[in-house]
């Protein structure tokens, strides 16, 4: 049961005595204590776009869109990408949302927590515009940007600001209390100041617990003091240079000292990674502008300054923008990303094909023959048809007549139903019916025309034998037209460097290799045969 307030403890008595002494001193000096209203000046209210952001949010991002989009460097990138993703977004925005990209004033994103399995689905957005927006049209355009089936609500905070809450419940969908304080209060106030092009922050207490444990990957363990802090805040300013400041907010000065060392160690890791990337990229003349930008980034990282102020540890860096070929570097990087994505998708296609071939083997005791042949041994349909049930295409498989050629009356109509796994990314056009994924046949290769080979017969080893590959030419996917192996001929002419200048092969063990340069003829012959006893060259 609570007792009436009494000065029972020495600490309370001491505090009361101190208060009396202070008041006596004020009176003795002829001063009047300030009124409570003057002593505590309330903080100015936050702008509407920041009023809903929790001050302990797991993630917070503010972008001054108007400032970023109007910056000379960004305008150059937008011009260079008129026919790319940015250009497509700019072209679609007026029709889809009723506003152009240049009507954006700011964008705020926040995620309250990331500690539970469903937390990542709860995201808040606030978009502000330079002129009044059409709420109905804005709301109608949102599903194209959000994951399929996601629940969201749209509220007009005023005629120029829209609040979008994805999967929020009632208690989290209200403005934050006035005067709220938390690890990200400084970041939110920095965003409200209008001084920065970008402000970002995260609160570790609301991130997954794993980040604070000792199971970080080896190279990243040097960052552990950062993850043990309260929050990290970053600001970016844009002008003649890009100025970055990253601040780690700790609970104690000793933690801030450790965080300062960790920031230096992380920066050192970054410079080492940039240096390694440059060694590779400098050999590629097509990305010289990207190399120029990376060198500038490396120099900026090396000039980074580290400091500590009480419980804050900070690193600042400046990247001069004048003269940097940012637009050209962006184009190179975007093209490179597209090519890498296409290679990855193609490799995944080959992995699925390899898995299907092994599942066929598990079911039938052997790999499929290279073709379904008629009674006279004439090839009718490709092995690609035979493995349809193993790539989730059993219904399509049952539509084929196995006793009819690939271009017969029934089977020819099925060409148009080519599964996506046989399409070469960035090469096969929509509705295309040709494939580059082909198998080597005959003279000891993985496939024979009439009979299926058994995996026990791969004496050279499954990791040393090619199962299928990208051919030099595409063929109708149902046509039994494969890469016929002749040990007396040059096998390099059978392979196609068609995946953005690379060839890809699926080995019999299911692994996929991407080859920027083909090995020697001798090495390729050794890879194609399944029981030749050859030694694989070092060029593979």
Automatic annotation (TrEMBL):
InterPro entries: DUF1559. Pfam families: SBP_bac_10 (PF07596). Residues 337-428 form the DUF1559 domain. It comes from the Bacteria. This is DUF1559 domain-containing protein.
């Amino acid at each position: 049961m609570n007792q009436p307030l009494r000065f029972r403890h020495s600490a309370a008595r001491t505090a009361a005595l101190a208060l009396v002494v202070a008041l006596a001193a004020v009176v003795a000096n002829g001063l009047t204590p300030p009124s409570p209203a003057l002593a505590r000046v309330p903080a100015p209210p936050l702008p509407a776009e920041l009023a809903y952001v929790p001050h302990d949010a797991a993630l917070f991002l503010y972008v001054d869109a108007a400032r970023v989009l109007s910056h000379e460097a960004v305008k150059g990138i937008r011009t260079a990408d008129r026919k790319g993703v940015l250009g497509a977004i700019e072209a679609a925005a007026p029709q889809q949302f009723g506003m152009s990209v240049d009507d954006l004033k700011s964008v705020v994103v926040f995620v309250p927590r990331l500690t539970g399995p469903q937390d990542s689905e709860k995201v808040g957005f606030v978009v502000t515009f330079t002129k009044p927006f059409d709420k109905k049209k804005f709301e109608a355009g949102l599903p194209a940007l959000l994951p399929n089936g996601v629940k969201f609500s749209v509220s007009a905070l005023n005629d120029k600001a829209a609040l979008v809450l994805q999967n929020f419940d009632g208690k989290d969908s209200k403005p934050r209390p006035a005067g709220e304080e938390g690890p990200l209060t400084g970041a939110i106030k920095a965003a409200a100041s209008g001084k920065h092009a970008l402000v970002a922050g995260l609160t570790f207490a609301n991130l997954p617990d794993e980040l604070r444990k000792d199971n970080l990957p080896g190279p990243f363990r040097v960052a552990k003091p950062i993850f043990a802090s309260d929050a990290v805040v970053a600001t970016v300013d844009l002008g003649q240079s890009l100025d970055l400041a990253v601040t780690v907010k700790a609970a104690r000065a000793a933690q801030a000292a450790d965080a300062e060392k960790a920031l230096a160690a992380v920066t050192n890791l970054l410079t080492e990674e940039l240096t390694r990337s440059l060694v590779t990229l400098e050999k590629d003349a097509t990305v010289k502008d990207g190399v120029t930008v990376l060198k500038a980034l490396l120099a900026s990282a090396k000039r980074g300054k580290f400091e500590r102020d009480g419980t804050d540890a900070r690193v600042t860096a400046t990247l001069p923008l004048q003269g940097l070929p940012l637009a050209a570097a962006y184009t190179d990087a975007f093209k490179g990303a597209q090519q890498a994505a296409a290679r990855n998708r193609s490799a995944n296609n080959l992995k699925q094909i390899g898995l299907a071939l092994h599942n066929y083997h598990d079911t039938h005791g052997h790999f499929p023959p290279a073709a379904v042949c008629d009674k006279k041994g004439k090839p009718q349909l490709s092995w690609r048809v035979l493995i349809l049930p193993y790539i989730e295409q059993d219904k399509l498989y049952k539509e084929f007549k196995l006793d009819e050629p690939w271009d017969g009356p029934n089977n020819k109509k099925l060409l148009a139903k080519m599964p996506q796994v046989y399409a070469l990314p960035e090469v096969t056009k929509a509705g295309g019916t040709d494939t580059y994924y082909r198998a080597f046949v005959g003279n000891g290769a993985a496939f024979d025309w009439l009979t299926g080979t058994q995996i026990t017969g791969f004496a050279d080893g499954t990791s040393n034998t090619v199962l299928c590959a990208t051919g030099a030419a595409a063929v109708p996917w149902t046509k039994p037209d494969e890469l016929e192996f002749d040990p007396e001929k040059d096998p390099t002419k059978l392979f196609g460097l068609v995946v953005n200048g690379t060839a890809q092969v699926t080995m019999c063990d299911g692994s996929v290799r991407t080859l920027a340069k083909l090995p020697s003829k001798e090495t390729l012959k050794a890879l194609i045969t399944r029981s030749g006893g050859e030694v694989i060259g070092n060029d593979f």
